[in-house]
Design a protein that fits this description.
98 residues, alpha+beta, two-stranded antiparallel ribbon, 3 helices, 21% helix, globular
């Protein structure tokens, strides 16, 4: 399930637009919004794609650390988990304090 970054309603992974507010979900879901902020942050050098223990094979295959500009788009289109793609990005920082 995708969560709309605008109204926080849930939509299926294959939804293109939020059924409540019309937000473009491939760009406006909470996971992709977080990735956009990580890409803009100079302290974030890479992102780790985190998957659930019971993730589907497609999601497990994508697990790992990526250059922040080369991270795969979420949700995974080929995710076969009954609850939908539950992957998320975790920032990898080069410094913690200013």
């Amino acid at each position: 399930m995708q969560t709309c970054a605008n109204c926080h309603s849930l939509s299926n992974d294959d939804a293109t637009y939020c059924s409540f507010c019309g937000t473009n979900l491939p760009e406006g879901n909470t996971v992709m919004t977080a990735l956009k902020k990580f890409r803009e942050n100079h302290r974030v050098v890479s992102v780790r794609l985190v998957v659930a223990d019971d993730a589907c094979p497609a999601c497990k295959e994508g697990s790992g650390t990526y250059n922040k500009d080369e991270a795969p788009t979420l949700p995974h289109i080929t995710c076969s988990h009954e609850g939908g793609c539950r992957c998320f990005y975790e920032p990898m920082l080069d410094e913690i304090y200013p």
